[in-house]
Amino acid sequence: MPRTLLRCIPFSGLDNMCRDLRGKSPTIDVYTAGDEDLVIEAHLHNYSHSDVAITVDRGNLLIHAERQDQDDQKPRSYLIRESSSSFYRSISLPGQADPALIPADFKEGILRGVVPLRRRMIPAQSIAIGSGRSFT
């Protein structure tokens, strides 16, 4: 009886699945506008203004969006059909960011926040050199 060998590729569909998942998640763009502002844009086309929250916590800009879909169609046997979709992203802000002055707006499915960057000029400082002291 002849044996037929089949080639097994265990993760062959994983690339396609990852590509599909990436296409469904919102896109985030982070770029600088000149030397004074850091612009953060979240493309949240499936969310409304009331679904989106943006906060700053411990040097991170947090974007959270959650949508609840309800379907109250009467011809079906269930009373309520509900599903939710959520999105969360944390973006580390640079040290010169001024979180108290971040304006944000949500228009046509795009959340846009502008982080002003402070210009901190740290003057040069000379460091005294000791003689013969050990480091302990």
From TrEMBL:
Domain SHSP: from-to ranges: 19-132
TM segment ranges: none
Domain of life: Bacteria
UniProt cross-references to Gene3D superfamilies, sorted A to Z: 2.60.40.790
PROSITE patterns from the UniProt entry: SHSP
Protein family membership: Belongs to the small heat shock protein (HSP20) family.
The name this protein goes by in its record: HSP20 family protein
